[in-house]
């Protein structure tokens, strides 16, 4: 892969990483307010797990999804630094540029992604 391409992907991944971190901070900060009506405000510290209820399950699913995506981005940045970015971690073939442009954090070529997908 050309150095200019690697630089482009590094920039994309770093921007995506920053966006995800900011989104996660906002989502996590909003959980205590969303789970505790105004009349029940308390300054006592709580853990996110204490707030799981029917109304917040979707928000927790979003947080988990964003955390998983952040882990994928971090792994892609590690592959970039290791010199293995753009190579499928399963079959070791090159990942086409069109796929990397669409999903720059993907560790798999199309064939291996289809095989790894849950059914």
Provide a concise account of the structure shown.
By secondary structure, this protein is mainly α.
Which features characterize this protein?
119 residues
Please describe the topology of this protein:
Blueprint: H1 3-35, H2 57-82, H3 97-102, H4 110-116
Helix pairs in contact: 1-2
Structure overview:
By secondary structure, the protein is mainly alpha-helical. The chain has a single domain (about 5-35, about 45-115), classed as Four Helix Bundle (Hemerythrin (Met), subunit A) (Up-down Bundle). Helix content is about 60%, strand content about 0%. α1 (about 5-35) runs antiparallel to α2. The mean pLDDT is about 85.
The helical percent reads 55-70%
Instruction: Estimate the strand proportion.
Output: under 5%
Structural class: mainly alpha
Tally of DSSP helical segments: 4
- Named at the architecture level, the CATH assignment is Up-down Bundle
